[in-house]
């Protein structure tokens, strides 16, 4: 399955630092950052809490003429500090062989970097999926609010008892605009991908 890499949700707030959100050039990534896996896509932005980099990394376990297959991925968030960077959070995941998964990848067309609650800080949303022989198997949506991660995890299955949609503890305490944005995103993925994203 080819990922959607040509579009990304960079919907930005209407204040001064909005123009600072950008995709990091490939040459800059290769020259400046050492990561566990190759960087698929990097983003940088400035908000009221500092200058940030988010690197989306995939292990590129198998590269073919048609696609790249990943069995593991990692997202790394860096805060600029005195000429260097502090690692503030990471995401790590891998295929689950018991689910017969074959591929895991970031879906950047569903990622976004916006100040969702108008507090002057960007609230990143990071999305990735896995697939098995039948199609998309798992979907994970991570909202990062004040450097704390809140996950929405879904499992797709042809059988009712194999499907699930789970919200992380504390998700219901997030600001309403953030929760509403996530629900709109889930609805968009249902429409775009034919996913159920529900329990049972």
Secondary-structure map with pairings?
Layout: E1 22-23, H1 26-32, E2 39-47, E3 50-58, E4 62-63, E5 68-69, E6 72-81, E7 84-94, E8 103-106, E9 112-114, E10 123-132, E11 135-145, E12 148-155, E13 164-167, H2 176-193
Antiparallel strand pairs: 1-2, 2-3, 3-6, 4-5, 6-7, 8-10, 9-10, 10-11, 11-12, 12-13
Would you kindly provide a written description of the structure presented here, covering whatever features stand out?
It contains 2 helices and 13 strands. It has helices at 26-32, 176-193; strands at 22-23, 39-47, 50-58, 62-63, 68-69, 72-81, 84-94, 103-106, 112-114, 123-132, 135-145, 148-155, 164-167. The strands form 3 sheets. Strands 8, 9, 10, 11, 12 and 13 form a 6-stranded antiparallel β-sheet that branches. Helix content is 12%, strand content 42%. It has 200 residues and is mainly beta. A hairpin with a 2-residue loop joins β10 and β11 (135-145). The two termini are 26 Å apart. It is globular, with a radius of gyration of 17 Å.
